[in-house]
Amino acid sequence: MRIMIRGLWLAIVFTLASYAYSQMTWTPIFVSGESQVDFWTQSETGCACSFNSSSKNCACCVLSGGCSCGSAMPKRCAQCGLEQYCTNMCNITLDSKQLLRKSNRAFGQIKSLSVIGPTECFYRFIPDIGQRVELQIYRLISIGRHNGTACEGGWLELEGGARICGSNVRFDRPVVLFSDKSEATLRMQIHENTTRSQFLAYFSFASKASTSVGWPMRGGKVINNTDCDWIFEDCLNTDCILASPAYPGLYPANIRCRYLIKSNITVSITLAFNSLLLSFNHCTDDYVAIYAGPTVSSTMLKKLCNNEKMSIVHVGTELLVEFKSGSEMSPFNYNGFSAQVTDLRSNSVVGSSTTAAGCDLEIDGNKSRFGHYNTRGKIQSDSCHFVLRGRIHDTVHILLISYNLSAPSCKTVIEIWDDGSPGEDKNLKNIKKICSPVQTVKRPRQFNHSERYSEPEHYSSTGRELTIVFKRTDNKTDDQQFVEFSYYFHDEGEGGTLRPSSTCDVEYYGLSSSRVGQLTNPIFKFFTTQDYIKCKQHFIPATNQSVVLTVDNGITNESSNKSCNTLCGDNGCHCVSDKHLDEINHVKLVSEPNNVVICLCGNYENWLPLTIRGWSPLYIEWSRSSGTDLNVKAAYKFIEDTYCGDHSTTQLEGIVKAGDLTSNAISNQYYQQKCTWILDSTIDRQLTVEVESSQDRPCTSWNLTIHEYTRSANPLESTEYL
Q1: Which of 90, 347, 451, 526 is the most buried (most CB within 10 A)?
Q2: CA distance 416 to 410
Q3: pLDDT tens digit string along 512-549?
């Protein structure tokens, strides 16, 4: 497609819906749709001057957080609270509380002015309680150079942390630095003669509780008079996480940190590395070593370097992890490691009896990730405890399928406890108490298609442990009173971020989730539930990302073939049946806005593989109405690309070319692409647009829209997704 431009304000929206990879994270900060000139400036002129109310030749600022630079720079705005530094952004203090109060923003931009070396500038950051300082470096001009061994001539250094340098560098992905001190100072030091030294960075006062950019260390304490030595003494009862300094940002050079894991009894210690990304091909200087004892003279179990992730199991009372780094190495694309520790007693067995009565049960999430339990037909007792204990990053989820509490006046009780069992020395939370008489019995669902889907009765823990207590005080211990439940353990790092108040809906984010993964039907975890159940897996790409969902195999259940058929064509795959779709087991792949691109039911194997690619959120919806699930397997992948995105140009003529996604396409590959180009002219001109395309599909498959655009309009208005 070719578009030639001579024009007024114009927006071109190109939409396609036809045939047809990282361990580093940071806070997404981007220029909003309000900003046209820079981060805080909408336009250079057009608004009243703060120093001269009779003049309207001053900059118009972004309404949320932008303030005029005043007479010093009348055509520019800055973040409110920093406007006094417009002409000299050097030797400044950025206080989280003050910035939030004045600009309603806990993030912003540092664009240093061009300075002549040798010189030095500092930037002092003061985070609020519960925050850590995050810096994202995007551009370096004449700030030293890397000689292959270290930085020389100048550098940027976060005090006590990492150091970077470069003579003329643009980072496609930012170099990310973190500090967890009460105050953090970034220093720009130039030790040689330069004509123009400058850098561009974003900053954020990030929450320490964030799952992606927060402070990851858990369960240990720092050893006095050391920089980064830690001791972990209670990983049997506490979730323990180890991480390199400043994780998930660039780690400091030339450091050595030790993490000692101790127990007062012999345990099975599992050390699982969730992330490991060290300076590549520098295994002599940058590594993680694991020792079977308290010192580096103990037997070495393993030495890891580069991006070699693995799990290590050691039976004993002590394990030492040593992290060592060498000199800073360009291009500064490493961020250390994160690992979880799980201690297990040597006699921990799934289903082991822990009381003389014989009805208590402990379910170990390391050995059983999901299952079902029914008290009927089991040994009975006045009080039974069912303890579900997961892995370190797990949360526990249960569905109460059916129960019958027939005794009067709350003499039979079901209690659900978060993070342990009653009687333990913990601050426990009683999630739910169900008193007799009450009954919930599993029955076939009567379909009422006007009703919205409602979640089944389910409960979730906030940590890795949950306990169900079944008490009977009416001296009846037969099967007349019972409880039946399904359970599963969920690890956010493996299975996406679970949506609150949902049984099984999860979200995968392009910036924080694994870039690739395999997907199976999540409903199989509830195999004993005959009622209608629905699960969604949402995939949310970041800016300049797309997401690809692929269904590449599946086994059709013969009994479901007759009630529904899958038919595929130019506009997607559809489920064809005389019945309502809620009455049929099916899978849907959906794009914006609630547009079903692929629906699979019945006999669909001949259409596989099927792929959908989108630049906006997609989701897979799994639905079951009967006891047999569709045995579908799928995969997802987040891709960094520039096929799409939003672009603006002031050139009087040029060519805009959309990427050809169909050149290497496979059969039954669908994609949805929406691109916007804004052609900006400061004066009215005649516009000529020539369009050339080899597409021969109808408008329902692709279309091009050309319309006038005004500054008050917002062509990038977001769309809500279900």
Answers
A1: 526
A2: 15
A3: 888 888 887 777 666 444 457 788 889 988 877 889 99
Query: Within the chain, how many helices (H) and strands (E) appear?
Result: 2, 48
pLDDT band of 627, cuts 50, 70, 90? low
User: Is the CB of residue 263 less than 8 Å from the CB of residue 343?
Assistant: yes
Which tokens go with 459?
């409960």
With H, G, I as helix, E, B as strand and everything else as coil, classify residue 307: coil
Q: Nearest Cα to 133, choosing from 177, 187, 189?
A: 177
DSSP string, 470-538: EEE-SS--STTSEEEEEEEEEEHHHH-EEPTT-SS-EEEETTTS-SEEEEE-GGGGGTT--S-EEEEEE
Q: Take residue 633 and report the two structure tokens written for it.
A: 């397997």
CA 181 – CA 159 distance, rounded (Å): 10
Residue 19's contacts (CB-CB under 8 Å, 6 or more residues apart) are 570, 662, 665, 667, 668, 669, 670
3-state secondary structure of 689: coil
101 three-state secondary structure: helix
Is residue 219 within 8 Å of 190, Cβ to Cβ? no
Under 8 Å CB-to-CB from 615, ≥6 apart: which residues? 541, 545, 546, 643, 644, 672, 673, 674
